[in-house]
Specification:
binds phosphoenolpyruvate, binds magnesium ion, EC 2.7.3.9, kinase, metal-binding
Length: 324
């Protein structure tokens, strides 16, 4: 069984009728990137940089960050690495930033909000990422974007950092793609507008579900309501993928839905291009994808879009995957 799965892991992922998708890995440290190409990851779809900040007793310098990003990029041997800028706040704390306690941390001062407020901190990280881009294909992604002004402000700081490095004569990579995470319903609903300006989307279902159904992703008491097969979540995902396709952009997913084989027929049917997951999930998802027929998934997805509850969607998907 292990060997059979490893066999799937090493091959690119495609459906029976030849629809290829990119399978990528989520990492939290550069060490986790080591050996990933051998485990079937065609890219890093989400590098959660906050762990670099959480492991220190003070803000990591530009050079310390540069070395970490470079290490992850080199481990991927020419494959793309999507680096997410600092996503702190919510459940992730940084004691040395001395942030005030909040009544609703998940709705508060976090991620891009903090970065746009503490521009020096943000510019330092952007410079480190852009410098690291000299060592391989890098894409930058901003977390927790809720509206166009935030995206534009973040993009302007990215351009400022890039311009500064160019003026200093520092070598940097060409064509660094810049995209946003879709993890707030407000951003998903405006995907058609964002799609004109961003290079790509990556759907963070962990937060997108939390904010769509108003269920704290950590709260066991209400976890029965937390489900990425909620029809509202599926509609939001569809909006995003359709908008990116209309504008010639691409959409990935880095929340845990991407690593769930049960979701695979739906994600194929919706046309998701890049699937990023924790590395142990890769082989199983590739196996499931290779058993699917895209035309069939398109028909199934039309039926799924018509259902009314998460339970109905799950039941239909289970029946579909268990069919003889
Ligand atoms: C998400 O919200 O789905 C996501 C991938 O980001 P994180 O889990 O780090 O919040
Ligand atoms: Mg998130």
């Amino acid at each position: 069984e292990q060997e059979r799965l490893a066999e799937f892991g090493s091959r690119p992922a495609a459906t029976k009728d030849g629809f290829a998708i990119e399978i990528a890995a989520n990492i939290g440290t550069p060490q986790e990137a080591e050996g990933l190409p051998g485990k079937g990851a065609e890219a890093v779809g989400l590098y959660r940089t906050e762990f670099l900040f959480m492991g220190e007793s003070k803000l990591p310098s530009e050079d310390v960050q540069y070395e970490a990003y470079r290490k992850a990029i080199e481990a991927m041997e020419g494959r793309p690495v999507v680096i997410r800028t600092l996503d702190i706040g919510g459940d992730k704390e940084l004691p040395y930033l001395d942030l005030p306690a909040e009544l609703n941390p998940f709705l508060g001062y976090r991620a891009i909000r903090l970065c746009l407020d503490r521009k020096e901190l943000f510019l330092t990280q952007l410079r480190a990422i852009i410098r690291a881009s000299a060592h391989g294909p890098v894409k930058v992604m901003f977390p927790m974007i809720s509206g166009l002004e935030e995206w534009r402000a973040a993009k302007a700081l990215f351009e400022e950092a890039k311009g500064g490095l160019a003026a200093e004569g520092v070598q940097i990579g060409e064509d660094i793609e810049v995209g946003i995470m879709i993890e707030i319903p407000a951003a998903a609903l405006l995907a058609d507008r964002f799609a004109k300006e961003v290079d790509f989307f990556s759907i963070g279902t962990n937060d997108l579900v939390q904010y769509t159904v108003a269920v704290d992703r950590m709260n066991e008491k209400v976890s029965y309501l937390y489900d990425y097969f909620h029809p509202s979540v599926i509609r939001l995902i569809k909006l995003v993928i359709d908008a990116s396709n209309r504008h010639g952009k691409w959409t990935g997913m880095c929340g845990s839905m991407a690593g769930d084989p049960l979701a695979a027929p739906l994600l194929i049917g919706l046309g998701l291009q890049e699937w990023s997951m924790s590395p142990p999930k890769i082989a199983r998802v590739k196996e499931t994808v290779s058993s699917l027929d895209r035309e069939d998934c398109l028909r199934l997805t039309e039926r799924l879009l018509d259902l009314e509850t998460p339970g109905e969607v799950r039941a239909e998907l289970e029946a579909y995957l268990n069919r003889a």
